[in-house]
Every structure is written in C-alpha cells, then in structure tokens.
Design a protein that fits this description.
- There is one protein chain.
- By secondary structure, the protein is an alpha+beta fold.
- The strands form two sheets. A five-stranded mixed β-sheet has the order 1-2-5-4-3, with helices on both faces. A two-stranded antiparallel ribbon has the order 6-7.
- Helices cover 39% and strands 26% of the residues.
- A hairpin with a 2-residue loop joins β3 and β4 (79-86).
- It has one domain (2-177).
- α4 (139-152) runs antiparallel to α5 (157-164).
C-alpha cells in the first residue's frame, strides 16, 4: 500500500515538473496508451533540445523531494536515462534523447528535430483530480517518429498497430508534406 502511495506521489511530481518547466524545449514521444496512468517500471520517452540542461533541471527539481532517488545512466552523448527509485525499487524512467541521427530513414535529422520542437501540442490531462499538461509532437510528427522507431525495431509491434490505426489519407498527406524529412514513404 505504501509503495502504491509513493508511485502516485512520484507520478504527480513528474507531471508537476513538466507543468513548471514549460520553458524548456522537450516533447514526450511515443505516448503510452495508458498515459497518465503508468505501470511501475514504465518509461517516458522524451526528445530534449539541451540534454545537460534538462538533466540538471530534473536533478535540481527532484533533489528537494523526499523518498525518491534518481540514478543517471549515460547511454551515449545524446541519450541519458534517469531512473526514479524508491528504496531499491525502480518506479519510473525518463529516457532522454537529444537527436535523431540514429534513424537511417530520416533526412536532415536536426532540422526535423527543430520542426518537432516548434510544432508541439500542449496535451492537457487529469491525474488524481488535478489538471496537468505536457508537450507532445503534432500528430504528423508522432506518426513519423513511430514509423522511424518501427523501421529500426520491427519487433516493437505496438508501433505497427498504432500506425495501422491511422487513416490512409493522413499517411498520404504526411508522405507528401514531409518528404523533405523522409527518405522513403511511410508504408506498412
């Protein structure tokens, strides 16, 4: 019971962090279908403009919070995981990425990243009777990101099912309007 209370407390604090730091360039990508009700061990995948600034802001914010420890894992220069623990139990993870260079089906990755940050949507939601908001990519950008992810990791079938659920007219529009960024048309 106490662990469940800590989980809810931490999620509320994570969601508060995003509300209080709207001035930072980030977007939540590949939003979980259960968001904001996340299971223990879930991760939030974020594209961030300035990785070191984002990490420092998170660490500063959570250093004032009780009962939560953060473990920072630098996977590469452009990818850091921030794992949130209560005692020795992993509760949630922020998976931070600051570029899209590892997607071979994408042209001009830094230009596309700028486009994502300039065209985000402020997604509003309720969690335990409180209103929150978080930046997410536009629908077209989200589809492109999930397509790139699926092409790189075809075993991640949830991206395939997400893409299949989208209207073919929308996919055709994305292929037309975003051909500058895609070196192949979205198809599945």
């Amino acid at each position: 019971m106490f662990k469940k209370i800590i989980q809810i407390y931490l999620l509320k604090e994570i969601y508060n962090f995003f509300v209080e730091n709207q001035n930072i360039s980030y977007v939540l990508i590949k939003k979980n279908s259960n968001f904001p009700n996340l299971k223990t061990g879930s991760d939030l995948d974020l594209l961030v403009d300035d990785l070191s600034l984002f990490v420092k802001t998170v660490e500063d914010y959570f250093s004032k919070k009780i009962l939560i420890n953060i473990n920072k894992l630098e996977k590469s220069e452009t990818n850091i995981n921030l794992d949130f623990y209560y005692r020795k139990n992993l509760l949630y993870k922020l998976d931070l990425v600051s570029n899209l260079n590892n997607f071979k089906h994408l042209n001009h990755p830094s230009k596309f990243l700028d486009h994502i940050f300039q065209n985000y949507i402020l997604f509003s939601y309720k969690f335990f009777n409180r209103n929150y908001s978080i930046k997410i990519p536009s629908e077209s950008n989200d589809i492109i990101i999930r397509y790139l992810e699926f092409k790189k990791y075809p075993e991640k079938l949830h991206h395939y099912y997400f893409l299949k659920s989208k209207d073919s007219i929308l996919i055709s529009e994305i292929n037309r309007d975003y051909k500058e960024y895609l070196n192949e048309s979205i198809s599945f």
